Amino acid sequence: MKNPAVRTRFAPSPTGFIHLGNIRSALYPWAYARANGGTFILRIEDTDLERSTQAAVDVILESMRWLGMDPDEGPYYQMQRMDRYKEVLAQLLAEGHAYPCYMSQAELEALRERQMAAKEKPRYDGTWRPEPGKTLPPVPEGVRPVLRFKNPKDGVVAWDDKVKGRIEIRNEELDDLVIARADGTPTYNFCVVVDDMDMRITHVIRGDDHVNNTPRQINIFRALGHEPPIYAHLPTVLNEHGEKMSKRHGAKAVTQYRDEGFLPDAMINYLARLGWSHGDDEIFTREQFLQWFDLEHLGRSAAQFDEAKLRWVNAQHMKMTEDAKLAPLVAEQLARMGIAADDRLSAICGLFKDRCDTTVALAQWARPYYAEVHPSEADRAQYLTDAVRPALAALAERLANCDWTKEGIAAAIKAVLAEHQLKMPQLAMPVRVLVMGTPQTPSIDAVLALFDREKILERLENA
């Protein structure tokens, strides 16, 4: 059932290029909003000032635009919301849900070492947590405190995760989280809650590396008088070696797939299947995906990226794509080779697309129509024999005078085969080598018909 109140978000950190593992975390919240007539929000979590860059923001926006995953709201930037965070920090302090902590970094590290030596879980021990009847240590001079969230001590924090099922964490397992650093800047887990609250996010669909943050965030939501959103934590995307997909482990930027000739709809199809399924359907359109998508069929186990499978999916989408839509994409690839296409390109795409898995491969097939070909010496030696040269000369003569249509060219070839008592491959393969630079192509009459007659005659002279 459609629910226009659905509000989802993608909240990347702009600290490097965006790869397929990241963009899959955007795909599902985008699809869920679209499937329900809801709102998809883009939020840039740019509080890591040392590592965040505008260039990384631009790549996020460019990648999403290429995939047709434009947000309905945003991008919102956390750095532009500092006044709001400080307002909520003051509210938590005033209501007794937060407190200043003067424990120095050195003291914290010494505490951790003692705990680890005693085989205890390293955690803040609540030295500065105000409690009824407790006397706090004297405030040290010249020390700026951090602010800590006063986590409940008893009970459990629980949620029904749409992927992982029921998750329960005992509050005593959680220490009092730092929600503002000594310089006053708020921390990640705090900012996320304020953002999700203010932006009225109903469903948080994100990677399962955030599961440990979730109980802390739920407790902050409740301290602020808000019920948390519904959570769905997605399993990791692994690379082809079974490692978590990351920049360090050789993941490519999303925009590189565009440059390598993949289609946006094929990428959506492939990424959708990396963690979600609709029966046994492997190939589907963007429209079908958005019609079918739900949270119930998200997978529970890690998905592994497979470039061969991606290429197969892309090849299926190329076959499904209208020639006129492929032509501008192939023209872009040709332009990178310094080649300007013309109005024949749509028909060229129609002739060759079934043998291609990317628009780069299709551009390579189109290239001989616009640039010189240089057959290999091996192909020349194998196919351009003295025995076939008279037939090639006869074909050139007939092609100079025939109707320049597929049918006219087919009739000229048929006549030469009969005259010289040859089978089709004996003539067609040498013609292909001269005209296209390779012995394997679609039907030779269809290939020749898209060339200018003069170009064919010129190339046949090179026999």
UniProtKB/TrEMBL annotation:
ATP binds at residue 247. Residues 332-463 form the Aminoacyl-tRNA synthetase class I anticodon-binding domain. InterPro entries: aa-tRNA-synth_I_cd-bd, aa-tRNA-synth_I_codon-bd_sub2, aa-tRNA-synth_I_CS, aa_tRNA-synth_I_cd-bd_sf, Glu-tRNA-ligase_bac/mito, Glu/Gln-tRNA-synth, Glu/Gln-tRNA-synth_Ib_cat-dom, GluQ/Sye. Residues 121-143 are annotated as: Disordered. One of its GO terms (biological process) is glutamyl-tRNA aminoacylation. It is found in: Cytoplasm. Signal peptide: none annotated. Catalyzes the attachment of glutamate to tRNA(Glu) in a two-step reaction: glutamate is first activated by ATP to form Glu-AMP and then transferred to the acceptor end of tRNA(Glu). PANTHER family: GLUTAMATE--TRNA LIGASE, GLUTAMATE--TRNA LIGASE, MITOCHONDRIAL-RELATED. NCBIfam families: gltX_bact. Monomer. This is Glutamate--tRNA ligase. It comes from Tibeticola sediminis. The lineage of its organism: Bacteria, Pseudomonadati, Pseudomonadota, Betaproteobacteria, Burkholderiales.
